[in-house]
Structure formats: C-alpha cells, structure tokens
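Weekly sync, protein design subgroup
Attendees: M.S., D.O., the rotation student, P.L. (late)

Item 1: inverse folding check
M.S. brought a backbone from last month's batch and wanted to see whether the design step gives back something sensible before we order anything. D.O. pointed out we never logged the input encoding, so this time it goes straight into the notes. Structure tokens as presented (208 positions):
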C-alpha cells in the first residue's frame, strides 16, 4: 500500500488500530527510564502517545498525513505533548544519536527497504539507547492468523538479528517469536509475531 492507500484507510474509520499500546511494546519498555522516544511508522501513534503518558518525550513519524492528524487529536484529547513528523521512514533521517528509545512496530517492507529504515533507526539511537522492533513473523503465513500474506514483506527474528549484527555497536537482548491472541468472529485465534530488542553500547559517529 502506498501513501494514498494508507490515507484512505485511516480516513475510513475513527481508529484503524486500538487506542491502547501494543502489548509487546508495553512489556518491553516497562523497565526503561523515560527519555526521548522515536516511533517510526507510527500510524495513529497509539504507542508514542502511551509513551508520552508515561513520561517520555515522544516523536511519531509516518507518511500518512491523515494518520498523523488523528494522532495529534488523540494526544491532545489525552493531554500529552506529541511531536509528529510526516515522512517516509525508508528515507527519513532522524537526528543522529539522539533517542533513548527507537520503536518500529509492524512496519512490513521488502528487505531492501527494511535495510534502509533499520540503518536510520540505529543511527538515531543515543548511547545506551534501546531499539525495539515488533512485527508480523514469516511463520504466521502457515501457522498464524491475519497479517500480510506476502512473504516478501515478512522476516524472522534471526534475519533481523543478523542485520543488526552488522552495525557492530549493538548488543542483542532478545530475538524471539511471540504469540498474540486475536479475537475474531469465529472465536479466539493466535497471530505469530516477533520481538527484537537491542541496545547501543557506545556513542559512535553516524554511518555515511
């Protein structure tokens, strides 16, 4: 889906996603002291808004203007400050070494685009900063519910970990499959996601 497709999707309902944070984002950030957070491909920014409610200075980046307008309204309704940036995360270059948390949740792209946004995400991490990636896993195609049905936009936690290893200054904390219960009209189902979490070991110059 391109930008106009996502604008249309976000315009078609009050909220495409829940107003509550993703369960894995909530769990994986619970032990982190608040700082600056960058939510890439944030959509309606449910995760960024939740982080702001918990003391983070949050920035939400997405290429859908409609989604970001909804994010700004939701943040205002919930009484928190939220910076929104309209940009394509495959080309957007955030402030380097500036964020204590960089979050990428359910951004499903082909491998070439994934390499681009992973690089930008790592460059944005401050010393000691945490990178958190949550996504539909490729194994969901055969064993799980919902999610993209195109293997080209799906990865495994091992593949993400291998890409992160190339940066050299990250320490991998988790790369695992996780089950996500989903309520459907046919009863409860399970989606298979993955969670990858790493932190930056030392301050380094951004890659050229």
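Designed sequence read out in the meeting:
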């Amino acid at each position: 889906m391109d930008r106009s497709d996502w604008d249309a999707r976000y315009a078609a309902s009050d909220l495409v996603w829940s107003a509550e944070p993703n369960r894995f984002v909530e769990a994986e950030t619970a032990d982190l002291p608040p700082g600056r957070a960058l939510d890439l491909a944030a959509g309606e920014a449910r995760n960024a808004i939740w982080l702001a409610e918990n003391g983070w200075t949050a920035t939400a980046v997405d290429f859908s203007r409609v989604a970001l307008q909804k994010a700004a309204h939701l943040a205002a309704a919930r009484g928190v400050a939220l910076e929104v940036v309209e940009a394509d995360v495959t080309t957007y270059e955030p402030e380097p070494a500036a964020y204590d948390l960089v979050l990428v949740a359910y951004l499903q792209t082909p491998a070439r685009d994934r390499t681009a946004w992973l690089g930008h995400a790592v460059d944005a991490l401050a010393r000691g900063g945490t990178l958190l990636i949550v996504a539909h896993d490729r194994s969901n195609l055969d064993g799980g519910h919902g999610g993209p049905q195109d293997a080209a936009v799906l990865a495994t936690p091992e593949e993400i970990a291998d890409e992160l290893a190339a940066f050299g200054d990250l320490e991998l904390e988790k790369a695992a499959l996780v089950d996500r219960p989903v309520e459907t009209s046919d009863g409860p189902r399970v989606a298979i996601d993955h969670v990858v979490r790493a932190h930056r070991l030392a301050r380094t110059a951004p890659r050229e």
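Discussion: DSSP finds seven helices and seven strands in the chain. Residues 22-167 form a domain with the Rossmann fold fold (CATH 3.40.50.150).
Action: P.L. to compare against the previous round before Friday.
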